[in-house]
């Protein structure tokens, strides 16, 4: 999209690169603390999963990098959450999008490949809101949501599923994620 820089949250091209906020961290769910989010190695639709398997069993597929993109979208900072295992040009990132009939929930959290030229991603399709839950009494927890020009869709886990879905309403603790190591407090805005 931008031959000599990075696309910003506002859709403009910037000469400055995306800023690394945190690197090589895992995300466990606040409501289900034994479960961590990971990039599935084999999947039909690319939906993100959760599992309580030991860390070594993921072979690095449970490690994430957080980037802040330049500019603002609707007055808010936006981020990209990428795979730490497959970092080449931040090639795999999280995106929240419609499940298009593949699940009972209308939205899901997916792994998308930036190098896939058949998918014309708009900046708001792959950039996310990431915010601190400190004001909710969870100082190290974060929420992950869509850019949300109209309404933010929050990544969450619900009972009876190992997949990560998207909720248009407040998902409660199922929508809280604990980064380990923690993301620096001042690096992300409050929810």
Helix content: under 10%
Flag low-confidence runs. none
Shape: globular
Domains, number: 1
Query: What CATH first level would be assigned?
Result: Mainly Beta
What's the arrangement of strands in the largest beta sheet? 7-6-3-14
Query: Span between N and C termini?
Result: 30 Å
**Radius of gyration over C-alpha positions, nearest whole angstrom:** 15 Å
Secondary-structure element order, N to C? EEEEEEEEEHEEEEE
Q: What's the mean pLDDT score?
A: 85
CATH architecture: Trefoil
SS elements, strand count: 14
Number of helices: 1
Secondary-structure-based class equals: mainly beta
Strand content: 25-35%
Biggest sheet architecture: 4 strands, antiparallel
CATH-defined fold name: Trefoil (Acidic Fibroblast Growth Factor, subunit A)
Describe this structure in words.
This protein is an all-beta fold and 191 residues long. The chain has a single domain, classed as Trefoil (Acidic Fibroblast Growth Factor, subunit A), CATH 2.80.10. It is 2% helix and 34% strand. It is built from one helix and 14 strands; from the N terminus they run βββββββββαβββββ. A four-stranded antiparallel beta sheet has the order 7-6-3-14, with no helix packed on it. A hairpin with an 8-residue loop joins β8 and β9 (107-113). The radius of gyration is 15 Å and the shape is globular.
């Amino acid at each position: 999209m931008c031959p000599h820089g990075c696309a910003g949250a506002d859709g403009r091209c910037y000469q400055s690169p995306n800023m690394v906020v945190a690197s090589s961290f895992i995300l466990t769910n606040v409501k289900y603390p034994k479960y961590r989010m990971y990039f599935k190695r084999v999947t039909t639709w690319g939906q993100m999963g959760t599992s309580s398997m030991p860390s070594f069993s993921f072979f690095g597929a449970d490690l994430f990098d957080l980037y802040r993109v330049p500019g603002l979208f609707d007055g808010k900072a936006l981020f990209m959450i990428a795979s730490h295992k497959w970092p080449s040009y931040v090639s795999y990132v999280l995106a929240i999008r419609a499940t298009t009939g593949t699940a009972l929930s209308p939205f899901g959290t997916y792994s998308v490949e930036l190098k896939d030229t058949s998918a014309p991603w708009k900046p708001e399709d792959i950039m996310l809101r990431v915010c601190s839950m400190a004001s909710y009494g969870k100082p190290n927890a974060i929420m992950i949501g869509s850019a949300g020009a109209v309404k933010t869709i929050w990544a969450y886990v619900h009972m009876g599923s190992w997949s990560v879905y998207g909720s248009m309403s407040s998902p409660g603790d199922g929508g809280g994620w604990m980064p380990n190591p923690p993301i620096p407090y001042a690096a992300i805005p409050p929810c």
